[in-house]
Every structure is written in structure tokens, then in C-alpha cells.
Amino acid sequence: MQAAQVRPFKVLGIQQIAIGATRKDRLRRLWVDMLGLEVTGNFVSERENVDEDICTIGSGPFKVEVDLMEPVDIGKKPAVHTTPLNHVGLWIDDLPAAVQWLTAQGVRFAPGGIRQGAAGFDICFLHPKSNEEFPIAGEGVLIELVQAPREVVQAFTAQTQR
Q1: What is the pLDDT of residue 117?
Q2: Calpha distance 73→50 (Å, rounded)
Q3: Ranges under pLDDT 70 in the chain
């Protein structure tokens, strides 16, 4: 592992939280019917074993997704329902630089590399568990890094310059 150096990226803010259950209808009752979140999309992936409703809080570049997830097949992995708070997504201003730098620091990533996520942004995941080769991980939490689009980077930059 290399010595810590100047970080070549910024974490801008929360992009999403993902909540899993055996049935997302119960999640929808709370998050949509009771709390008033808007359902803005749906994503189904057999490979990722997920059927998720994409909901939102807020607007514009400060909009946060709340993904309500259930497994496509409850007997298969990944088991998106076994950890109710499935993962937290963070907006990153330069995802490739972040992955390169974090890997060099000993951060463990989940398999799959950088790829397009359900909402159309480039994403990758920090593994929830460390190992001997990569001693830094999410300590039980799956963390999604999400490439922020230009308008989100600009909005967060403007906020920090006030």
C-alpha cells in the first residue's frame, strides 16, 4: 500500500440509499404512500438479482435516490434483502481517479469494476469486507461510488464556495 497522498477526487454528497426487503410493496407503503417520495423508475436485473423501484427526495442536482429493492429470486445471490440498508451511494467528481487512488491505498472493491448503474451513471462498489490483500473496506457496509454528472459537480462546487 502506498503512503497517503493528495486525494485526486472529491466525495460531493449522498447520491442514494438502497433499502432491501423480501417484498418491496411494504417498503413502498412507507416510503411512497406515507412519506410521499416519488417513484421515478424501475430497474430489474436477473444478474444482480434485483427488482427495484427508484424513488426520489429533493430536486435538481441535490436530488437523492431511495431505491426500494427486493430479490428477483429469494434463493439466489446477491441477496439484496438480507441487509435492510443495502448500500449507500456517494457522488464522486472523478470516478476513475477515485478507483485508481483508492485501490493504491489498499481499498477493496467488489467485482465488476466501473460499469453503468440502474440510473444510467457510471458506478462501482467498495466491498463490505476487507481481506489480507486489501485491508480497507466498508466494515460491513456496501458503498457505491457514482460518477457525478457535470451539473451535479458544478452545483456542489458552487455550494462549497459560498
Answers
A1: 94
A2: 8
A3: 1-4
Q: How far apart are CA 104 and CA 134, in angstroms?
A: 9
Which amino acid belongs to residue 77?
Answer: K
Phi, psi of 112 (to 5 degrees): 120, -25
Query: Torsion angle, CA of 15/21/23/27, rounded to 10 degrees?
Result: -50
Contact (Cβ atoms closer than 8 angstroms) between residue 17 and residue 85: yes
Identify which of 157, 126, 142 has the alpha carbon closest to the alpha carbon of residue 62.
Answer: 157
Q: SS in 3 state form for 39-89?
A: EEEEEEECCCCEEEEEEEECCHHHCEEEEEEECCCCCCCCCCCCCCEEEEE
Question: Which residues, other chains included, contact 41 with Cβ-Cβ below 8 Å and sequence gap of 6+?
Answer: 53, 54, 118, 119
Q: In what order do the strands lie in the sheet with 142-147?
A: 38-45, 50-57, 64-70, 11-20, 85-92, 142-147, 122-126, 115-116
What is the reported pLDDT for 18? 94
Cβ atoms 129, 109 nearer than 8 A: no
Which residue carries 493528495 as its cell? 6
Q: Specify the amino acid at residue 137.
A: A
Q: What is the pLDDT of residue 4?
A: 59
